[in-house]
Amino acid sequence: MKTLLIVRHAKSSWSHPEFSDFDRPLNRRGNNDAPMMGGIIREQGVKPDLIVSSPAKRAITTAKFIAGALGYDSSKISEDHDIYGSGPKYILKLLSQLDDSLDTVMIVGHNPDLTYVSSLLCQEEFSNVPTCGVVCIDFDFDKWEKIITKSGDLRFFDYPKNSKVRNQGASGLYNK
Q: 99: domain range?
């Protein structure tokens, strides 16, 4: 079995218009949400063998916060520049070429690509994966090259606002 965690970067700051899109940092909410979502992933019992992130500042910072919450060595995060702006076909190609010794992989990137890939790979339709949203998909095969449309089963989908509601006493985690 293979497991894929698809993580959209946390909320970014727009308070520095002189920064390029690539260099935008996280805002205060993003800095709080990313470690919280790492904790949610940990609570779900999922630990990646590999984290691959866009090197855009907001994505790699999100990946490092989540890695810290999971006890994953952040120096082992793989940065792939093409996750930033190359589109969903590139992400699917990247996934299909992963080393089969890796059972659980996390990819951290950007919308709209991650929402599209999430909908494409499992039976659920996602209209939007919110900032710092996490989609966890299980695949009933042992080779990443077998990833095809609708081949996965959604294990869980969560995001910061949903988690905050749940932590205040309401049920909200979409968990299969």
A: 2-175
Query: Is pLDDT above 90 for 8?
Result: yes
CATH code of the domain in which 43 resides: 3.40.50.1240
- Host H or E run for residue 92: helix 88-96
Tokens of 4: 């894929």
C-alpha 18: how far from chain center: 27
R_g (Cα) of the chain, nearest Å: 15
Q: What SS3 class is residue 159? A: coil
Residue 135: closest CA among 11, 42, 3, 12: 3
Least Cα distance to 104 among 174, 152, 64 occurs for 152
Q: What DSSP character marks residue 13?
A: P
Return the H-helix or E-strand segment holding 134. Answer: strand 134-139
Q: Give CA–CA dist 167/80, Å, rounded.
A: 34
User: Per residue in 128-137, pLDDT tens?
Assistant: 999 999 999 9
Q: What is the DSSP letter of 83?
A: G
Q: Give me the phi and psi of 38, to 5 degrees please.
A: -60, -40
Give the total number of structural domains in the chain: 1
Pairing type for strands 134-139 and 152-158 reads antiparallel
**Rounded-to-integer distance, Cα 50 and Cα 153, Å:** 20
